[in-house]
Write a structure and sequence with these properties.
This protein is 19% helix and 38% strand. The protein is α+β, with helices and mostly antiparallel strands. The chain is globular and about 50 Å long.
Amino acid sequence: MYALNLPSFDAKIRKKGAGFEIFDSLRRKYVALTPEEWVRQHFVHYLIAKKKYPASRIANEAGIKLNSLVRRCDTVVYNNQLEPLVIVEYKEPNVTITQQVFDQVGRYNSVLRVQYIIVSNGLQHYCYRMDYDTQTYTFLTDIPVYAEL
């Protein structure tokens, strides 16, 4: 697949028909191995192993209702009260992260109102903290560990 700017891990991959699948430990099932899924699985593993995010507080493909449409957030991290705390949006490595990507995750956040937003294509990672009192955001130099959220 692609070399990423994320730690490697022991991914469970199997052949299925003409393609491959990767095991998603959060959803407890094999899913189609696409370039974006490759990024998601590596990033989730990074959050759990390196940033100490509890796996039980992370959901992949979390559904939300945006206007009258149902959309899926790539990954949502919840706090101890199971309130949304972080949205993570993934793109495949050959997709440049543009304002359109930030606008997309911003629309999701209009529903969830999280404290942190992360965007990654596996090579570049952006994390910013929302300040709803001043209607501003601050880009962070690193992704915080879970205990700092």
